[in-house]
Amino acid sequence: MEVRKIVTDVLVIGSEGAGARAAISVCEADPKARVTLTTKGRFAKSGATLTAGTDIDVDSTSIIELFGLEGDRRDTKDTFLEDIVEEGRYVNNQKLVEVLVENAPRVVKEVADWGMKVMGLARAAGHKYPRGILSTGVEVMRGLRNKVRQFGDRVSLIEDIMVTDLIKDDAGYVSGATALDLRTGEPVLFVCKAVILATGGGLRIYPWTSGPEELTGDGQAMAYRVGAKFTDMEFVQFLTCTLAAPPSKVRSVNPFQLYGGWLLNREGQRFMARWDPERMEQSTRDNLAIGIMTEVLEGRGWKDDKGGYVLISLKHLPDQIIDDSPAIQSWFKKDYIDSVKNATAVKAFPACHFWCGGIVKNERCETSIPGLLGAGEVCGGVHGANRLSGNAVTEILVDGAISGQAAAELIKGRDVPHLSESSYAGLIEKIFAPMNRKEGSCPIELRKRIQKLAGYKVGVVRDAEMLEQAIDELQELREEAAMIKVSNPQKVYNKEWVEALQAENMALSLEMVARSALERQESRGTHYRRDYPQTDNKSWLKNTFLVKDAEGEMVVTTAPSVMTKVRPEED
Are 212 and 47 in contact (CB under 8 A)? Predict the structure, then answer.
């Protein structure tokens, strides 16, 4: 089979916040470097960054000095770090948090200078001071797109392409990747001096999610297959309170909770009093998600085929407050707002929103595999057990800038590697195998089964029995995914083919979450074990690490968390 070959200096997989910023950084650091920027969708029109609300976190003192907004000078980089670590339940890698808070002011100011509109300042739950620079994901990408375009043909943008696997050269460096061109149905081989993974999380592995369809754990799966090390995969954050199916612009994000909504169980109780009596519905996302699903599992909520729900009500609020809420008015259509004002309550439930764990990276965004760097949500370590609102966009901008700089330094003096046909022929064959099989599972049905398993057994509330069952079932699902069949012979924009290639990645990434969750025998942040409901600082101030061993088995170990500045009071 003829394979289209593309040679570049740096291959960036994922074109949005982290990926676009990484491409910019490579070009800034090395005036001669060539960057190839790839995306499964369309540049600045797909991926997670575009869906962000968004508040972008920077310490309040820097906000005053750089943006002229009314911040609070009591807030410093150190107090910002303290809040991140406290809400991350002290298992953050504090070296990485130091990098985040130190670089945040510069990188956020840069994207504003490039065209991102700043709309104000806010303080979200978990922050002691106002740090959220208000903008939108569209505005973030506007600034990044403007800057990328300034580099002209030094950044080669390839849209509608699915990168399927990474390739190591004879020296053990990641020096290329295989891909499927969705526009033509042709295989593509990338040869490069370094790869930056910026593919985001695996949100679409769950039945309900706030993320776009591209986020199927591709980057995690590709990195795992070449031997990369992972950390804290058990910490999956769920957004509350999501609405089931309103006629809204943003289906899965609910500002009702931010504007005084009451969460109610079937007994009419505001059950968040049991989880956070001081903040109630204004609590952090981990507490809200755990509270909701505990009500469901213990029979005080409502169960359905997606996992279950409780109710959220605005009935106690005067109509004027609802009508004057900018978020509610801008996010929902008038007829829906009117129906909510007249209704007793509407369904609300948690939706997968962010993966706090991921590939292990150092302060330069280098992974455990030479030649492979990671940026943004595909990596772990910064957020610990729970991410604060606003830190996602901050992280992608910081990581993008740092990974691009590191990649530019890495490729200096390095020749374009030679990849033998034997190093990629099998990977190309794997891409086309589903199209050539006469028997096998249906990709769409397999995806639904993976999502159902994720929602019921590796979701917000877990226990050993659930997780062990999930791991056993995932073994079967991964075997099915490896022998999947595509019935549609069309090669151009074949959605079924894409689903077939994603299915293996989804099952593999979910197994990493399940095995890490089984290892952590306590509850902390977004990880809630009802068989170990307490946080155990004596035994579990440490991180989980996962890697594929020499026999190809998934192995989980632990090590003490990296603490440089902040420790829990009782420790």
Answer: yes
